[in-house]
Design goal:
Elements: H1 5-23, E1 27-30, E2 34-38, E3 43-47, E4 51-59, E5 62-73, E6 76-81, H2 94-105
Length: about 110
């Protein structure tokens, strides 16, 4: 007899890993002055001058960008989002460079 218990446990583990990993991602859009951040339930408009630091995690061209703020927002002191797909292995995503200009201007 074959038992499906190991497969079910693997499926549940994979589901929780995916949910934990992607549930924290935010939707971010921006204009010249503001970041518009959403998690589908809450929205916040944050001035780009409130950006304290920007970090990027590149793993097999799977970019995650983390923005740290000077003040706490409704999403906390930092957010993580995935930018549009960008094929590069040796340089930062263009959005990181643009956000870093805001950090340097303050």
């Amino acid at each position: 007899e074959y038992t499906y218990a190991p497969l079910i446990l693997i499926y549940i583990f994979a589901l929780f890993f995916i949910l934990f990993h992607f549930i924290r991602l935010k939707i971010v859009s921006m204009d010249e002055k503001y970041l518009y951040i959403s998690n589908f339930f809450k929205d916040e408009k944050i001035h780009r001058k409130e950006i304290e630091a920007v970090g990027e995690n590149k793993f097999l061209n799977y970019n995650l960008i983390k923005i740290y703020f000077t003040e706490k927002t409704i999403f906390g002191k930092s957010i993580i989002f995935m930018p549009t797909f960008w094929v590069t292995f040796f340089s930062s995503h263009p959005i990181v460079k643009e956000l870093l200009k805001d950090v340097d201007d303050t």
